[in-house]
């Protein structure tokens, strides 16, 4: 029996040249060879040509009916054609640059041919040919990514020898407990299933095992990192008063959704822990994150701590202030607002009260992180729309407390798959349900020439006292052109309405004060139509706005379209969104269709992920996602979630750290250096 750590050249048929080509592929030992997985399996099941659509891949068994004819097309280029009989079909088979077939193919001979079926011309453009009838075991053949002159058949011969050299013995790397639980194939069976599957099911089960194993390793590393970080970052255990929190929830004028209840529980549990909370709260626009934030802040207050809520703009901070006051005033919790426009004297008094502990909760913008803002006892910090804040700003605010717990809120739906990977070091809570009774935003996709139809619709809304947004085209890399466009649209509309409705203009070149002013006018209903570039505030709440038109909507990604659309549909009125777009690509059309089909931000985010792939979703650099051998984050997200739960449980399980069954997993962690803190990525 060969030892699998031996060099590959101990296998038969591997000479100097082949060895160096294998080396180039990173294959030095027999073991390396075994762990080289195919990137796909070719389906060689026999198909009936009558049932096969044009351009699809087929494999047929056929009898050669003619002498092959060869056409030379130039240097090393040739085309060979032969007529074959497959069942009742007399068809032609064509191969390019396979000159050697000329002497191999003789009339009467049976061959198995695979290729692309040209239904119109009744031709198979061959990709592979085997001489003789099809063999049973070749329904699914792995396809490896190979280098040099090694071709698939040769490579499979080496692989066969490599697997045979195991002699049916290979140490299991997954705990038997998990193999049992999920009915996974053993390591030997799975290796056979990857390299020499008996059938589709065999290949599928093998893949299932390795995907799970790979994702489990990945999640164990993340969970181990999280555990060591938690142990090293001591925080405060906020012992809130459960009864008081319950009483407060009872005073809220609506019933929390199940999703809100769930995330409140997740956050509360975390508050009580002695480590520092580092949690991301995701919830689609309108899902009700503010009340969740309020409950969490109040919990901290009942434990004797102060809380802070930081928003990216003054208007948002004011809106939070309004909501929180309406809930907190009746129960005597002191809330204050600090922003850039707080008057000097008022500010001095406010800061004094903050320092004395007379203010329980401070809401504000960046103004919260100025050096003279001193809390008495800051225990909990929430930042809204976290992506708007720099890491540094968050750190400064955090440092104003004694390592306070931190909750980040965002309305950008990130598919669960990516959230639990990309935010590996953060815990994630998701509100995936809207309060009952919300009306869907009716979304229509119109051609740009149908602009007039949408203006008519807008006018009918305005006549009923509603307000509208017009989002102007985004011109890549030219803010100047963006502005020009917005100004043009603004002037057009102003001319059309001729004073009947007031039109406002908003774009990135305005001074922050001007922006605030125009937003305020819109919020207060003094402006009926707001023409804006995409700078229109995330999270702004104008419940009376019921109409939005988005120019050149196909230039936006799904996530951004969804964000923009979320500016309407926030009140009791039925709302409308019109996408004006003539997309040139299939993908663009699909995006427009998706928008008209669903209002669900998470569904759209999943779709976005599917259309763009995980790398693009965040931008390649940020994603920090490892390269997987088999797993695919988009399609294997359920397995990823299972692996995450298993890893989170195992890492705190005595058994995991002691039992022989888990030794392989422990060794994997030890090698990663995470346990000793050598690698903190
Ligand atoms: P977002 O998650 O976008 O910040 P908000 O917190 O602003 O959403 O909530 C949107 C609106 O829904 C607010 O008017 C809020 O009071 C209301 N709301 C929140 N939760 C519920 C609920 N469970 N039932 C009914 N209305 C709710
Ligand atoms: Mg909000």
Radius of gyration: 32 Å
What number of domains?
Answer: 4
Q: How many strand segments?
A: 21
Helix content: 40-55%
Number of H- or I-type helical stretches: 24
Low-confidence runs (pLDDT<50, min 5 residues)?
Answer: none
Query: Mean pLDDT across all residues, rounded?
Result: 87
Side by side, the strands of the main sheet go: 11-12-10-13-14-9-15
What ligands does this structure carry? adenosine-5'-diphosphate, magnesium ion
Shape: flat
Supply the CATH architecture of the largest domain. 3-Layer(aba) Sandwich
Percent of residues in beta strands? 15-25%
Major sheet, described briefly?
7 strands, parallel
What structural class should be given to the helix and strand makeup?
alpha/beta
CATH topology-level name of the largest domain:
Rossmann fold
Supply the CATH superfamily name of the largest domain: P-loop containing nucleotide triphosphate hydrolases
Cα separation of the termini: 41 Å
CATH classification, class level of the largest domain: Alpha Beta
Write up this protein.
- The protein is of the alpha/beta class.
- It contains 24 helices and 21 strands.
- The chain has four domains: 69 residues, DNA polymerase, domain 1, CATH 1.10.150; 87 residues, OB fold (Dihydrolipoamide Acetyltransferase, E2P) (Beta Barrel); 190 residues, Rossmann fold, CATH 3.40.50; 157 residues, 3-Layer(aba) Sandwich (Rossmann fold).
- Strand 20, helix 18 and strand 21 form a beta-alpha-beta unit.
- Helix 9 runs parallel beside helix 10 and helix 19 packs antiparallel against helix 20.
- The longest helix is centred in the first third of the chain and has 33 residues.
- It binds adenosine-5'-diphosphate and magnesium ion.
- Magnesium ion binds next to helix 10.
- Adenosine-5'-diphosphate binds next to helix 10.
């Amino acid at each position: 029996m060969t030892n699998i750590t031996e060099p590959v050249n101990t296998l038969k048929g591997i000479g100097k040249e082949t060895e160096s080509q294998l080396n180039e592929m990173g294959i030095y030992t027999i073991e390396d060879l075994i762990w080289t997985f195919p990137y796909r399996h070719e389906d060689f099941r026999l198909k009936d040509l009558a049932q096969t659509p044009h351009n699809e891949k087929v494999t047929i068994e056929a009898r050669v009916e003619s002498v092959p004819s060869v056409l030379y097309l130039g240097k090393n280029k040739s085309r060979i054609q032969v007529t074959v009989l497959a069942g009742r079909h007399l068809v032609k088979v064509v191969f390019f640059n396979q000159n050697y077939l000329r002497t191999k193919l003789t009339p009467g001979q049976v061959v198995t041919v695979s290729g692309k079926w040209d239904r119109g011309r009744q031709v198979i453009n061959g990709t592979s040919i085997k001489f003789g009838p099809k063999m049973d075991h070749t329904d699914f053949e792995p396809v490896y990514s190979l280098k040099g002159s090694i071709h698939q058949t040769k490579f499979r011969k080496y692989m066969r020898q490599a697997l045979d050299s195991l002699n049916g013995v290979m140490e299991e790397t997954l705990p038997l407990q998990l193999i049992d639980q999920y009915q996974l194939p053993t390591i030997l069976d799975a290796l056979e299933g990857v390299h020499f599957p008996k059938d589709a099911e065999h290949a599928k089960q093998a893949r299932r095992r390795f995907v799970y194993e790979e994702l489990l390793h990945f999640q164990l590393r993340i969970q181990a990192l999280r555990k060591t970080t938690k142990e090293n970052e001591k925080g405060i255990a906020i012992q809130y008063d459960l009864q008081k929190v319950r009483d407060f929830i009872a005073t809220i004028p609506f019933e929390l959704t199940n999703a809100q209840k769930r995330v409140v529980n997740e956050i509360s549990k975390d508050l009580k822990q002695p480590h520092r909370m580092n949690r991301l709260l995701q919830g689609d626009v309108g899902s009700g994150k503010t009340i969740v934030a309020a409950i969490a802040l109040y919990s901290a207050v009942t434990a004797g701590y102060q809380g802070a809520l930081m928003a990216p703009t003054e208007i948002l901070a004011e809106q939070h202030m309004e909501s929180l006051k309406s809930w907190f005033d009746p129960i005597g919790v002191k809330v204050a607002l600090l922003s850039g426009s707080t008057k000097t004297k008022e500010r001095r008094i406010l800061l004094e009260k903050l320092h004395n502990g007379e203010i329980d909760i401070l809401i504000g913008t960046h103004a919260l992180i100025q050096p003279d803002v001193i809390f008495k006892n800051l225990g909990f910090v929430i930042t809204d729309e976290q992506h708007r804040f720099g890491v540094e700003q968050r750190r400064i605010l955090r440092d104003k407390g004694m390592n306070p717990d931190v909750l980040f809120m965002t309305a950008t739906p990130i598919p669960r798959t990516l959230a639990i990977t990309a935010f590996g070091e953060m815990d994630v809570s998701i509100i995936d349900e809207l309060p009952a009774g919300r009306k869907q935003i009716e979304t229509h996709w119109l051609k740009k020439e149908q602009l007039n139809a949408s203006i008519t619709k807008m006018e009918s809304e305005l006549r009923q006292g509603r307000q509208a947004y017009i989002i102007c085209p985004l011109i890549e890399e030219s803010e100047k052109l963006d502005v020009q466009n917005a100004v043009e649209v603004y002037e057009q509309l102003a001319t059309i309405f001729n004073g009947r409705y007031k039109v406002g203009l908003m774009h990135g070149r305005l001074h922050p004060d001007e922006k605030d002013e125009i937003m305020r006018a819109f919020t207060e209903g003094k402006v009926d139509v707001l023409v804006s570039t995409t700078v229109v505030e995330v999270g702004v709440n104008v419940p009376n706005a019921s109409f939005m038109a988005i120019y050149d909507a196909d230039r936006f990604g799904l996530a951004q379209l969804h964000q923009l659309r979320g500016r309407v549909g926030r009140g009791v009125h039925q709302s409308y969104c019109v996408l004006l777009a003539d997309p040139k690509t299939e993908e663009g059309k699909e995006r427009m269709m998706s928008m008209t089909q669903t209002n669900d931000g998470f569904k759209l985010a999943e779709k976005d992920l599917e259309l763009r792939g995980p790398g693009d979703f965040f931008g390649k650099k940020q994603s920090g996602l490892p390269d997987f051998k088999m797993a695919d984050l988009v399609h294997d997200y359920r397995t990823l979630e299972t692996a995450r739960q298993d890893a989170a449980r195992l890492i705190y399980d005595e058994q995991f750290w002691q039992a022989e069954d888990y030794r392989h997993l422990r060794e994997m962690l030890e090698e990663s250096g995470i346990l000793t803190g050598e690698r903190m990525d």
